Amino acid sequence: MGLDDIISNNHYPILFIGSGMSKRYLENSPTWLDLLEEYWEKIEQDEPFYSKLHEVEKDVRRDYPNYSGYDIKFECNTRIASFIENKFSDLFFKQKISVDGLDLKTATLEQLSPFKVDLANRFANLKRKKDLDAEEFTLFKNAVQKAKMVITTNYDSLIEESIRENSKQDPRIYIGNSGFFDSSSIGWSEIYKIHGCCSTPSSIVINRKDYDKFNENSVLISAKILSSMIQSPIIFLGYSLEDKNVRKLLKDFSRELPKEDSRKSANRIFVVEYEPMEEKLVETIQNDSLLKITYTHIKTDDYSTLFEKIISIDEGVTPYEVRRFQDVIGKIIVSAGHKKALSSYLISPKNIDDLEHKIDMDAPIVVALGDVKNIYVTPTDIDYLTDYINQKFEILPENALRFIAKAQTRARYPVFYHYNNVNLDQTNLDSVEKKKIRDRIEKYSEGIESILDSINLKKKYMKSCYSDIQSIIALNEKENVTIDLIAKNAQNIPLDELTEFIRERALPSFVQYAKQHNQKHGVEKTALRRLFLIWDIIMYKN
User: Fold this and answer.
1) Which of 352, 369, 386 marks a domain boundary?
2) What are the counts of helices (DSSP H) followed by strands (DSSP E) for the chain?
3) What is the pLDDT of residues 85-128, one digit of tens each?
4) What is the DSSP letter of 12?
5) Where do the DSSP E strands lie in 87-171?
6) Which of 486, 79, 5 has the alpha carbon at shortest distance from 265?
7) Domain assignment of residue 275, given as a range
């Protein structure tokens, strides 16, 4: 039941993230009521905040006698917000209150709300809590990256900053309703900030007028989510079940979701509520008669376990890579296709950015799409070693391993990086190829000493020990002797120094000799291969 089911179904979820998550990780992140009380103090009203709130509540109950408690609370907050905004603006234009970065002229000519600009400043300056659980927060960042899309009512930039910080990737961000009208929106690795963002003060939704305008287009939000919910579950984080935003969406879902058994409905929608000191994920299936919907309700204070479960979902490529694939393929069709520029390129997650650059440069490309077992580009020695030693890893791992499997048994090649990062049993290599890879790994795993035994050094160097490459080069020996001495002392030399030498000196020499296609430099090439393998064992074996 519940989370375990969506993990076994293995579909990236939609995350709907509310203020509770910001309060968990950001210093002084307020609830809506906290924020209104804070700004009530700024406009210096004689009447206490809760006295005003009580008066407004009486008015709302009179105006809307059939409203539920949730609706009354929401209506009160929007009316108070409208009152505060008007008073705040009056005080700003009378120069009795100031807003950082905003002057009277700019506010007037650009029709900016001083209240919203000040709100934007407040949320833009929120800092991470110094005492936050670093391990849990790392899991949160990883979990957010596994979201097919993120929808949030928060004004702060916690979500997008977390993704950039964790992966160096830029999610596509839509503020307000823009993403629901934008044709470039594909629903993968996108953040929808439906109540606005601190980066765009005018987008902030907080008062009665803002919410009326927002509700006019709320059907688009529901439609976007419902279309994605065909395969992806939605998880509400940082909200209370009393939150009107959550309740309205759930009500919209109940009207549009197909009639199905309650278990299936419960596995589509999850509402996670914070329960202090609850060390387990307490899951129950709830049937809300008012909303006419069934969902899974989770109470917990153990967000680490929750995030670990989300992180365990793996569809092969990340949501970001799915979006990049769709973006790039669309660009190929629109930009390169009509130029007749499609000629040779193989797409993999590691070269998407390079492909987009080639399209922009009008370079000829080909795009190969199909079952990976039918796509195999055979690298040369130079291709393989250049890609591996420079840590580009642009050759698909399975293709790299197949190249190694087909190589002569006695030929030395670095391979541990690819072997450690691929489940050999899940590749399309045949049983003979897999055995050859495992035999090679077993042989190399015997350690560096067995490789060093094949080096024949001059007697005067047999007991010599060096801890830097420059001292070896200063001996002015033949190249193969120099390479063998470096190999013999590789474990004593700092790894960054050894890596630099291999990339800047050893690899170019090997490439030069390999291109000559003769046996003239066979001794040097053998010494270089031996050095590359020793470096690989030191660098990647463990």
Assistant:
1) 369
2) 27, 8
3) 999 999 999 999 999 999 999 999 999 999 999 999 999 999 99
4) P
5) 149-152
6) 5
7) 3-29+126-311
